[in-house]
Amino acid sequence: MSESRPLLGILYLMGAVFLFTSLDATSKYLTQTFPLPMIVWARYGIHLLLMVFFLAPTMRSSLITTKHPWQQIARGVVLMTTSCFGIAGFSMLPLAEATAVIFLSPLIVVLLARWLLAEKITLGRWLAVAAGFLGVLLIARPGGAVSAKGLLLMVITAFLYAIYQIQTRRLSPHENSLTMLFYGALVGSIGLTIAVPFYWGGPTPNAFQTLQILSLGVLGGMGHWLFILAFRHAKASTLAPFTYAQLIWATLLGWLVYDHLPDGLAIIGIIIIALSSMSIALSERFKKTPAPGTDTAY
């Protein structure tokens, strides 16, 4: 891939992370009324239908052709579980704080890669990991405004998402990116459809709520599509710093939709997490592999 149009790639990426944040804000609102698994089911089911409708006619069997079907399924299960924990966490935490904790995942990838990928951890990376968790402590400090249970859910989400990124790193050199995206949506749809009798219920959605539910798959699907387009026009090392615009979008939407702004210490914690995670991403500029954790959508 040639980095011939990096500005266009950055614009695509900025649009993608805005859509991802809009997805988080919408799911947070819907979980106040409807069962959480139903929200996740709609997110993956509609995403899957969009891929079948728009990509299957041209890609045909190549959309589902994979050399590693069991690894694709395992990755899809981890992604589905990540989504369930993440949306549960978003239902309990403000958008900005919850999004910041998810950005711990690149730091956790560094720790997991030491054992799973035999990658060396330098002193600088150890310091980045330590600083990132210090940022979480500032958000979760005694007397802070966040829910301890919600924070725990988001830390679990970050850990699961780190595992998902490790799985993606292992598969991406051998698999088509759209095929990997398809299997993620397929596994999530099937898994949550099987479990429908155990969670289906709640009030019948009105017209506006129906549009919001349908928007989950559209926001997720379009976000991933813009993300893929971004990487066609710019290198991962160029795009990585701009993924942290998601924290800005989360803060703005949290303020505009939920009338919440982080307090001073929480803002410091969010900035520390962002800088620590960004330092990991920027250090990948000198390596051949893409930066871990640059895709923050689940």
Tell me roughly what share of residues is in helical segments. over 70%
Q: Which outline best applies?
A: globular
Spans of at least 5 consecutive residues with low confidence: 288-294
The gyration radius over C-alpha positions equals 18 Å
Protein name: EamA domain-containing protein
Keywords: Membrane, Transmembrane, Transmembrane helix
GO cellular component, one term: membrane
Transmembrane segments: 41-61, 73-92, 98-116, 123-140, 146-166, 178-200, 212-231, 238-258, 264-282
Question: Can you offer a commentary on this structure?
Answer:
This protein is mostly helical. It has a domain at 35-209 and 261-286. The chain is 74% helix and 0% strand. The protein is built from 13 helices and no strands. The longest helix has 27 residues, at 207-233. The protein is globular, with a radius of gyration of 18 Å. The protein starts with 5 loop residues before the first helix and ends in a 15-residue tail after the last helix. Mean pLDDT is 84; it is low at 288-294.
In brief:
It is built from 13 helices and no strands. The protein is an all-alpha fold and 298 residues long. The two termini are 25 Å apart.
